[in-house]
Amino acid sequence: MPANILVVEDEPAIQELLALNLTQAGHNPVRALSVEQAQMLIRETLPDLILLDWMLPGMSGIEFARKLKGDELTKSIPIIMLTARGEEADKVRGLEVGADDYVTKPFSPRELNARIKAVLRRRAPQMTDDPIEAGGLRLDPMTHRVSGNGKTLELGPTEFRLLHYLMSNPERVHSRTQVLDRVWGDRVFVEDRTVDVHIRRLRRALTESGHEEFIQTVRGVGYRFSAQ
Ligand code: CA
Fold first, then answer.
1. What structural domains and CATH numbers belong to the chain?
2. Residue 149's pLDDT is what?
3. pTM score over 0.90
Protein backbone atom coordinates (compact mmCIF):
# COMPACT_ATOMS: atom_id res chain seq x y z
CA MET A 1 0.00 0.00 0.00
CA PRO A 2 1.61 3.34 -0.99
CA ALA A 3 2.07 5.82 1.84
CA ASN A 4 1.00 9.47 1.66
CA ILE A 5 4.11 11.34 2.71
CA LEU A 6 4.06 15.05 3.44
CA VAL A 7 7.35 16.74 2.56
CA VAL A 8 7.92 20.04 4.36
CA GLU A 9 11.00 21.64 2.80
CA ASP A 10 11.53 25.27 1.77
CA GLU A 11 14.29 24.67 -0.75
CA PRO A 12 12.59 23.83 -4.07
CA ALA A 13 15.50 21.78 -5.45
CA ILE A 14 15.70 19.55 -2.37
CA GLN A 15 11.92 19.25 -2.26
CA GLU A 16 11.89 18.16 -5.89
CA LEU A 17 14.56 15.56 -5.22
CA LEU A 18 12.69 14.22 -2.18
CA ALA A 19 9.40 14.00 -4.09
CA LEU A 20 11.06 12.20 -6.99
CA ASN A 21 12.74 9.77 -4.65
CA LEU A 22 9.47 9.05 -2.84
CA THR A 23 7.56 8.52 -6.08
CA GLN A 24 10.21 6.09 -7.29
CA ALA A 25 9.92 4.20 -4.00
CA GLY A 26 6.17 3.82 -4.66
CA HIS A 27 4.84 6.49 -2.27
CA ASN A 28 2.58 9.50 -2.83
CA PRO A 29 4.47 12.68 -1.94
CA VAL A 30 2.51 15.79 -0.95
CA ARG A 31 4.57 18.96 -0.82
CA ALA A 32 4.67 22.02 1.41
CA LEU A 33 7.18 24.88 1.36
CA SER A 34 6.32 26.12 4.84
CA VAL A 35 4.69 25.09 8.11
CA GLU A 36 1.60 27.13 7.17
CA GLN A 37 1.15 25.20 3.93
CA ALA A 38 1.78 21.93 5.75
CA GLN A 39 -0.92 22.75 8.30
CA MET A 40 -3.44 23.40 5.54
CA LEU A 41 -2.61 20.09 3.85
CA ILE A 42 -2.84 18.18 7.14
CA ARG A 43 -6.30 19.61 7.74
CA GLU A 44 -7.39 18.17 4.38
CA THR A 45 -5.80 14.72 4.74
CA LEU A 46 -3.75 13.20 7.52
CA PRO A 47 -0.48 11.97 5.99
CA ASP A 48 0.99 8.57 6.87
CA LEU A 49 4.40 10.13 7.53
CA ILE A 50 5.99 13.60 7.54
CA LEU A 51 9.47 14.44 6.25
CA LEU A 52 10.20 17.66 8.06
CA ASP A 53 13.07 20.03 7.38
CA TRP A 54 14.69 21.56 10.44
CA MET A 55 15.37 25.01 9.03
CA LEU A 56 12.18 26.57 7.70
CA PRO A 57 11.08 30.20 7.35
CA GLY A 58 8.66 31.27 10.08
CA MET A 59 8.01 28.38 12.46
CA SER A 60 11.00 26.01 12.55
CA GLY A 61 10.68 22.30 11.89
CA ILE A 62 11.40 21.45 15.49
CA GLU A 63 8.65 23.75 16.82
CA PHE A 64 6.25 22.27 14.30
CA ALA A 65 7.20 18.73 15.31
CA ARG A 66 6.53 19.57 18.95
CA LYS A 67 3.16 21.03 17.99
CA LEU A 68 2.16 17.98 15.95
CA LYS A 69 3.17 15.60 18.73
CA GLY A 70 1.15 17.61 21.25
CA ASP A 71 -2.05 17.47 19.20
CA GLU A 72 -4.40 14.49 19.68
CA LEU A 73 -5.24 14.37 15.97
CA THR A 74 -1.66 14.40 14.66
CA LYS A 75 0.45 12.93 17.46
CA SER A 76 0.57 9.44 15.98
CA ILE A 77 1.83 10.59 12.57
CA PRO A 78 5.50 9.53 12.32
CA ILE A 79 7.99 12.33 11.68
CA ILE A 80 11.44 12.05 10.13
CA MET A 81 13.48 15.23 10.58
CA LEU A 82 15.87 16.44 7.89
CA THR A 83 18.94 18.03 9.45
CA ALA A 84 22.19 19.51 8.22
CA ARG A 85 25.25 17.30 8.57
CA GLY A 86 27.02 17.02 11.89
CA GLU A 87 24.56 18.81 14.12
CA GLU A 88 24.53 16.14 16.79
CA ALA A 89 22.78 18.29 19.40
CA ASP A 90 19.99 19.00 16.91
CA LYS A 91 19.39 15.31 16.34
CA VAL A 92 19.02 14.70 20.05
CA ARG A 93 16.60 17.63 20.37
CA GLY A 94 14.60 16.33 17.43
CA LEU A 95 14.17 12.93 19.02
CA GLU A 96 13.33 14.57 22.33
CA VAL A 97 10.31 16.40 20.92
CA GLY A 98 9.03 13.11 19.55
CA ALA A 99 10.45 12.86 16.02
CA ASP A 100 10.77 9.19 15.08
CA ASP A 101 14.05 9.47 13.20
CA TYR A 102 16.27 11.91 11.36
CA VAL A 103 18.21 11.98 8.12
CA THR A 104 21.18 14.26 7.52
CA LYS A 105 21.53 16.34 4.37
CA PRO A 106 22.90 15.64 1.84
CA PHE A 107 21.06 12.32 2.15
CA SER A 108 21.38 9.20 0.06
CA PRO A 109 18.04 8.09 -1.44
CA ARG A 110 18.69 4.53 -0.32
CA GLU A 111 19.26 5.55 3.27
CA LEU A 112 16.17 7.75 3.26
CA ASN A 113 14.00 4.95 1.83
CA ALA A 114 15.31 2.48 4.38
CA ARG A 115 14.50 4.87 7.22
CA ILE A 116 11.03 5.60 5.87
CA LYS A 117 10.35 1.87 5.62
CA ALA A 118 11.58 1.25 9.16
CA VAL A 119 9.48 4.07 10.61
CA LEU A 120 6.35 2.99 8.73
CA ARG A 121 6.82 -0.58 9.88
CA ARG A 122 7.08 0.59 13.45
CA ARG A 123 4.37 3.22 13.44
CA ALA A 124 1.93 2.31 10.69
CA PRO A 125 1.79 -1.47 10.39
CA GLN A 126 -1.00 -1.31 7.78
CA MET A 127 1.70 0.00 5.41
CA THR A 128 3.61 -3.26 5.75
CA ASP A 129 2.81 -6.88 5.00
CA ASP A 130 3.07 -8.19 8.56
CA PRO A 131 0.15 -10.39 9.66
CA ILE A 132 -2.03 -9.00 12.45
CA GLU A 133 -3.83 -11.04 15.07
CA ALA A 134 -6.32 -9.97 17.75
CA GLY A 135 -8.70 -12.05 19.83
CA GLY A 136 -8.61 -15.04 17.49
CA LEU A 137 -9.02 -12.94 14.35
CA ARG A 138 -6.09 -13.07 11.96
CA LEU A 139 -5.40 -10.98 8.86
CA ASP A 140 -2.51 -11.78 6.54
CA PRO A 141 -1.74 -9.06 3.96
CA MET A 142 0.69 -11.32 2.07
CA THR A 143 -1.85 -14.01 1.27
CA HIS A 144 -4.86 -11.65 1.50
CA ARG A 145 -6.52 -14.07 3.92
CA VAL A 146 -8.61 -13.47 6.99
CA SER A 147 -9.43 -16.20 9.45
CA GLY A 148 -11.45 -16.28 12.65
CA ASN A 149 -10.65 -19.00 15.18
CA GLY A 150 -9.00 -20.96 12.39
CA LYS A 151 -11.97 -20.60 10.01
CA THR A 152 -11.37 -18.84 6.68
CA LEU A 153 -13.60 -15.80 6.23
CA GLU A 154 -14.80 -14.45 2.88
CA LEU A 155 -14.13 -10.70 2.54
CA GLY A 156 -14.42 -8.43 -0.48
CA PRO A 157 -11.34 -6.32 -1.36
CA THR A 158 -12.70 -3.14 0.23
CA GLU A 159 -13.75 -4.95 3.40
CA PHE A 160 -10.28 -6.47 3.54
CA ARG A 161 -8.58 -3.05 3.33
CA LEU A 162 -11.05 -1.65 5.84
CA LEU A 163 -10.35 -4.45 8.34
CA HIS A 164 -6.60 -4.12 7.73
CA TYR A 165 -6.74 -0.41 8.55
CA LEU A 166 -8.94 -0.85 11.63
CA MET A 167 -6.90 -3.77 13.00
CA SER A 168 -3.67 -1.81 12.45
CA ASN A 169 -5.07 0.99 14.60
CA PRO A 170 -7.00 -0.80 17.34
CA GLU A 171 -8.90 0.93 20.15
CA ARG A 172 -8.84 4.23 18.29
CA VAL A 173 -12.01 5.87 17.05
CA HIS A 174 -11.91 6.74 13.34
CA SER A 175 -14.29 9.22 11.77
CA ARG A 176 -15.84 8.31 8.41
CA THR A 177 -13.66 10.95 6.76
CA GLN A 178 -10.51 9.43 8.24
CA VAL A 179 -11.57 5.96 7.11
CA LEU A 180 -12.26 7.28 3.59
CA ASP A 181 -8.86 8.97 3.45
CA ARG A 182 -6.99 5.91 4.61
CA VAL A 183 -8.91 3.10 2.97
CA TRP A 184 -10.21 4.66 -0.23
CA GLY A 185 -7.48 7.28 -0.71
CA ASP A 186 -7.99 11.02 -1.08
CA ARG A 187 -8.23 11.00 -4.85
CA VAL A 188 -11.47 9.11 -4.97
CA PHE A 189 -14.78 10.82 -4.34
CA VAL A 190 -17.13 8.68 -2.30
CA GLU A 191 -19.80 9.66 0.18
CA ASP A 192 -19.48 9.07 3.92
CA ARG A 193 -22.41 6.65 3.70
CA THR A 194 -20.25 4.32 1.62
CA VAL A 195 -18.20 3.63 4.75
CA ASP A 196 -21.34 2.53 6.61
CA VAL A 197 -22.26 0.14 3.80
CA HIS A 198 -18.85 -1.53 3.86
CA ILE A 199 -18.79 -1.65 7.66
CA ARG A 200 -22.09 -3.57 7.51
CA ARG A 201 -20.65 -5.99 4.95
CA LEU A 202 -17.53 -6.43 7.04
CA ARG A 203 -19.60 -7.23 10.15
CA ARG A 204 -21.66 -9.72 8.20
CA ALA A 205 -18.47 -11.49 7.03
CA LEU A 206 -17.16 -11.57 10.60
CA THR A 207 -20.34 -13.16 12.03
CA GLU A 208 -19.08 -16.45 10.55
CA SER A 209 -16.53 -16.70 13.37
CA GLY A 210 -18.38 -14.51 15.88
CA HIS A 211 -16.03 -11.54 15.54
CA GLU A 212 -18.60 -8.98 14.36
CA GLU A 213 -18.60 -7.24 17.74
CA PHE A 214 -14.94 -6.28 17.26
CA ILE A 215 -16.17 -3.62 14.83
CA GLN A 216 -17.80 -1.07 17.10
CA THR A 217 -19.87 1.98 16.27
CA VAL A 218 -19.11 5.05 18.35
CA ARG A 219 -22.25 7.11 17.98
CA GLY A 220 -21.79 10.49 16.37
CA VAL A 221 -18.03 9.89 15.97
CA GLY A 222 -17.20 6.87 13.86
CA TYR A 223 -15.86 3.34 14.14
CA ARG A 224 -13.41 1.44 16.28
CA PHE A 225 -11.80 -1.98 16.25
CA SER A 226 -11.61 -3.53 19.68
CA ALA A 227 -10.85 -7.09 20.70
CA GLN A 228 -11.65 -6.35 24.35
CA1 CA B 1 15.46 24.55 4.84
1. 4-126 (3.40.50.2300), 132-225 (1.10.10.10)
2. 93
3. no
